[in-house]
């Protein structure tokens, strides 16, 4: 046996048995370098519930991996780590720590003494808090924090922290760039891949406590008995990690699944069908979370098909779920086929009037901006405008409009920007989007943040190593919407790659500017929705032939020989009026405003002088060019970090940056070529002409672009 | 550093850092148990070509893994392993071994002495032979063979050993049950996943030397410049492993890609387009293998659309490829929409007359049987009937008709049965299908075997652990069509799971009977094509409503109140006449024939007495029931092997067997219920009635069945 052990050791050291392929995400638990000491000697856990067992297992796995010695659940020793709740652990009960601030899901981590022994306790009021505490404690080690005198109390500021999977039953993922769905629907409920547990571990490690399994453009088959059984199997796997499952509900399911003639929310048969369906689901999944609904939006069925309101539709489902404790997340991303009005205004116009009409187990889910997850958008005017309704934030983690999974864009910085925006609700400064979402502004206890997942079958889960950071940052900001995205990037980089300061500092800087760079080479100065049709891959500012005016990029940039930009002032669509006066003031005056929003709100002459002193035309070209050259800078920076990164992941990131550099240049050249054909102006001195003709860029086709 | 090493060792032993997930296939290279000695001390390789570097790396990886010590490429020591060709290795040249029998791709492995040192040499005439020899040598260790006095010479008996991927450009895989395609077309040619190299290693380890990347139901976009560049990137990755890439060519590509008005093979413009396309491909891929073509079959375009023959079509493509050394694999799986004749006869009828008309770089690719990869088929009558044409065997590795990836069916035993079948070509006994395919019967040097791949993005590659054995066995039998499928199963089980005799013996027995078991519960006694429509999942013997008669199961079983079976004798379709008289004789007489083919060739009364003494009706029920209960036996056997298998793979296989047991019972019950509704006969004593009604079985629908 010993010979064998030695053999295995030699082997393990000899070979990259487990090359870094990104599967372990930020939970790699590799041994810490000499010089950083982990005092922990043993784990004391008396808990027997699934979450407490999961917590003990994770701590054992993490401490053993990080310390490089087997640290098991066992007896009390000096520097033992004691985990549990007062009810599950005699030791915790004895120490009787103050858990009032921990609440339902929070925890405390404290170094203290038990019968004169130094110990570390991870305690909570409920089991799930213990698991969250364990992940926090492991993060302290993964990021090399001192462990000698800990006194941490933490609890989530938002109740529902939910991933939205836009996954279809045929395995494809709408706007997915990381391969197909990880849900093996065909083999469920029998086959439960280990990947499902790793998915739950990763989510729990950042506090995500819910997942919507299927696309908001949904299929009634998801509500069939066979698929409820499949969903129940996933729910069983996720339950120990505090993750509830939700389903996107197709509003017309009573017709397609139920065989009824109508889906009218006020029809008694329809209401009865939904009640029965809810009962059926809860019989299989007692802690089922509820429904997410996309209704009367982009062709989806909804209550308006029957001349009923969004509130009528949402409340019918809420009534069916209410007895079981379920909730409805009703999306506000609507823009009517009939209305020719600025899409920016339509959600607000439709929903504002319904404030106060929604049942108390309904949240209205609002995208961060009023158009559609553009590289930059001003915050959505609904935030702060519906005090009687809990508004749930919807962020997009998958990069539909930011270069798919090959462009590096750290979205934590984007999310923070959106959350920090001041709505001036009630005319008061400081009522940020974050505080609205937390319920602090209008005293809501039912609160939530959703993120459209970037997860697929790719081995690295997210399609690229750096896209993992967006999943991670979403979870961290859902837990605490006022957290710093830079601090989050720092944690992520340390856990995912290396704690070497020579690596961490430049990588975090690169991450923090990366999304700005994408906005520069795709949609500078407040331009938006310029991506090519359907797949949204690459530039398509010239597209003007789509059925609906507001599907065309030309609708959004409105460029002509004189100028460019969407006038959303009084003189134009007046979308600005949907913001509180103090918020509106920020964007009212081109001379003083943040020019990164200039063309979002104003139509401006080409020869208008921007703050840099350049003409607008020159500034557009300069900004596009800067975006492209900043990618070259990122690429060079990454090349210099080779000593700190394992070969496979270094290569993978380097290849993506090579692609991004080429495509940023493409964006810059195609956009400059197109806008120059309209402005008829010369390029500023020192700025090179596009490599190819406008006709060339217009001719490009991508028949099998992913996610479309 | 030492502290760190010890730490890592402790860690590696403490944790299942790398749980067995099947990704390593039969190339796990885990340390051998004490008691088995590996003499090798170092590797001597002077080769600098990609295949020789790959060979040295594989040997280093394998020997280090298996011995548990680092064994590197270095200097000559006692018991060194010397690899190379006489031209690449001075040592090999000095020892000057007899390589005449090794041929172009073969190798020798020999223990000998060099300057009085004991050494092992792995030598070949060409680089690729050295790589094949390295894999053979590693297999000896993986299967615990003695290494002390080796004197092995081996060479492939077939020239083209090719996988056919039925992979579509949208990522789906036709008849694929292991997830989506492993070709990340979107990110090619830039991103080259490590998985591509592991794919090449696995194929080379069993001698596969070609791969057709795209579906035979093909898309002309595969021939576009962008996709040729993507294909070239894969070719570059596979080249060091001796694997050529091929493409399925859409016959109408000159219209779709070339913008021509016709694809008539005799049209000069069409011929010129294909010549130019071939030149374009070879400019990017100098060793491109050639085209696989499905023409005038199941709606695919072909030469008959222009009143030309299959030979006209194949020869046009052959002419374009010829200057570059490429070949055409022209599929014989054709059955005309017009002809109402027995499908069994149509390929033979269409192709027999063309024998001698094909260019010398064309092979005709023939499925093992005349219908379509059924659980059992008599060999295809074309084998032995076209002496002037090289016939390439097409096996299906993916289990379209044998339970997808959840049913355990070892196809090595199926392939061996087909290859061992005696065609009695020229009236002589011993001219087996294997010998026809090897070219031995008609002296062809251009020979080939194709297998429709069962590979996808599932972590274990093939959708289940045991399906890996079918990929493995295909390769081994393509290398040597006269090999023993039992010996192959034995090697595979040892390399994939364990060398413990207590594990190997029962598992190999289980594998060898597993396909017979599937035939019993799906299509006993020569019944065929009874699977449900489209997806081919589960029983559909009642289906009678499809557009074409020969798409309906009822067309194949022809059951009525009096009897069942397809009369292919003179009195019926007379398909039997397509076989040589001596072969036909085997099946001519129900009384004496192998009854596993009875209903394939004969329509037999229900009360006909079979060899067992039972009536045919009783035998049908008994065989269906036996198939179902044999799965229970398999399941119990696997359960008893738990001590020998790692937890994850044991669980995965156990879950699949649970599914198979349920579905075998479903097959048995649904089939018995249906046939009883026709025979109107009672079940034999002691055989239970179906669990549910026939209506229930007929009502089952599977909207998202994979591979459809």
From TrEMBL, chains A, B:
Residues 25-137 form the Alpha glucuronidase N-terminal domain. SUPFAM superfamilies: (Trans)glycosidases, beta-N-acetylhexosaminidase-like domain. GO terms for molecular function: alpha-glucuronidase activity; xylan alpha-1,2-glucuronosidase activity. It is an enzyme of class 3 (hydrolase). InterPro entries: A-glucoronidase_C_sf (IPR037054), GH (IPR017853), Glyco_hydro_67_aGlcAse (IPR011395), Glyco_hydro_67_aGlcAse_N (IPR005154), Glyco_hydro_67_C (IPR011099), Glyco_hydro_67_cat (IPR011100), Hex-like_dom2 (IPR029018). It catalyses: Hydrolysis of (1->2)-alpha-D-(4-O-methyl)glucuronosyl links in the main chain of hardwood xylans. One of its GO terms (biological process) is glucuronoxylan catabolic process. Its EC number is 3.2.1.131. Residues 1-19 form the signal peptide. Residues 141-461 form the Glycosyl hydrolase family 67 catalytic domain. Residues 463-687 form the Glycosyl hydrolase family 67 C-terminal domain. The keyword Hydrolase applies. PANTHER family: ALPHA-GLUCURONIDASE A. Belongs to the glycosyl hydrolase 67 family. This is Xylan alpha-1,2-glucuronidase.
């Amino acid at each position: 046996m010993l010979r064998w052990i030695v053999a295995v050791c030699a082997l393990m050291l000899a070979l990259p048995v487990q090359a870094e392929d990104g599967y372990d995400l930020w939970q790699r638990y590799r041994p810490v370098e000499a010089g950083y000491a982990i005092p922990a000697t043993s784990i004391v856990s008396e808990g027997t519930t699934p979450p407490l067992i999961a917590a003990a297992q994770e701590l054992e796995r993490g401490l053993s991996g990080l310390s490089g010695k087997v640290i098991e659940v066992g007896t009390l020793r000096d520097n033992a780590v004691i985990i549990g709740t007062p009810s599950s652990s005699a030791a915790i009960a004895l120490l009787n720590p103050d858990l009032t601030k921990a609440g339902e899901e929070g925890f405390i981590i404290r170094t203290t003494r038990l019968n004169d022994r130094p110990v570390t306790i991870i305690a909570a009021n409920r089991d799930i808090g213990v698991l969250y505490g364990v992940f926090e404690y492991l993060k302290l080690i993964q990021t090399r924090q001192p462990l000698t005198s800990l006194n941490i109390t933490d609890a989530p500021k938002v109740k529902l922290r939910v991933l939205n999977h836009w996954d279809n039953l045929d395995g494809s993922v709408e706007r997915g760039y990381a391969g197909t769905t990880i849900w093996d629907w065909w083999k469920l409920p029998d086959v439960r891949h280990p990947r499902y547990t790793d998915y739950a571990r990763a989510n729990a490690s950042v506090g995500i406590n819910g997942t919507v399994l299927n696309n908001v453009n949904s299929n009634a088959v998801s509500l069939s008995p066979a698929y409820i059984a499949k969903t129940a199997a996933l729910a069983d796997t996720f339950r120990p990690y505090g993750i509830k499952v939700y389903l996107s509900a197709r509003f017309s399911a009573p017709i397609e699944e139920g065989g009824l003639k109508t889906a009218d929310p006020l029809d008694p048969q329809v209401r009865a069908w939904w009640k029965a369906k809810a009962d059926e689901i809860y019989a299989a999944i007692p802690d089922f979370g509820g429904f997410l609904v996309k209704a009367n939006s982009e062709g989806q069925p909804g209550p308006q098909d029957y001349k009923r309101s969004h509130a009528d539709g949402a409340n019918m489902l809420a009534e069916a779920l209410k007895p079981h404790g379920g909730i409805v997340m009703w999306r506000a991303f609507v823009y009517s086929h009939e209305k020719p009005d600025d899409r920016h205004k339509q959600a607000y116009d439709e929903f504002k009037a319904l404030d106060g009409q929604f049942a108390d187990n309904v949240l209205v889910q609002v995208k961060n901006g009023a158009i559609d997850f553009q590289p930059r958008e001003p915050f959505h005017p609904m935030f702060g405008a519906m005090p009687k309704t809990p508004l749930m934030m919807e962020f997009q983690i998958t990069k539909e409009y930011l270069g798919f999974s090959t462009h590096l864009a750290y979205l934590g910085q984007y999310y923070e920007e959106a959350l920090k925006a001041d709505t001036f609700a009630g005319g008061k400064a400081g009522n940020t989007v974050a505080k609205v979402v937390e319920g602090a502004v209008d005293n809501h206890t039912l609160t939530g943040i959703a993120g459209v997942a970037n997860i697929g079958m790719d081995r690295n889960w997210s399609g690229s190593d750096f896209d993992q950071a967006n999943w991670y940052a979403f979870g961290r900001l859902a837990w605490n919407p006022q957290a710093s995205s830079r601090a989050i990037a720092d944690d992520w980089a340390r856990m995912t790659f290396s704690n070497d300061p020579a690596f961490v500092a430049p990588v975090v800087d690169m991450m923090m500017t990366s999304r700005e760079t994408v906005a520069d080479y795709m949609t500078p100065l407040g331009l938006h929705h310029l991506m090519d049709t359907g797949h949204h891959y690459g530039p398509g500012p010239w597209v003007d032939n789509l059925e609906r005016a507001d599907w065309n990029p030309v609708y959004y940039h409105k460029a002509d020989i004189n100028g460019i930009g969407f006038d959303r002032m009084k003189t134009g669509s007046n979308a600005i009026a949907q913001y509180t006066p103090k918020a509106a003031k920020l964007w009212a005056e081109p001379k003083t405003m943040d020019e990164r929003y200039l063309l979002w709100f104003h139509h401006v002459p080409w020869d208008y002088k921007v703050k840099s002193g350049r003409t607008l035309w020159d500034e557009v070209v300069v900004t596009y060019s800067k975006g492209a050259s900043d990618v070259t800078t990122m690429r060079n920076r990454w090349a210099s970090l080779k000593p700190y990164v394992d070969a496979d992941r270094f290569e993978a990131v380097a290849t993506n940056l090579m692609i991004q550099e080429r495509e940023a240049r493409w964006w810059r050249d195609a956009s400059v070529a197109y806008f120059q054909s309209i402005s008829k102006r010369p390029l500023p001195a020192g700025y090179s002409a596009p490599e190819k003709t406008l006709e060339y860029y217009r001719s490009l086709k991508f028949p099998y672009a992913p996610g479309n």
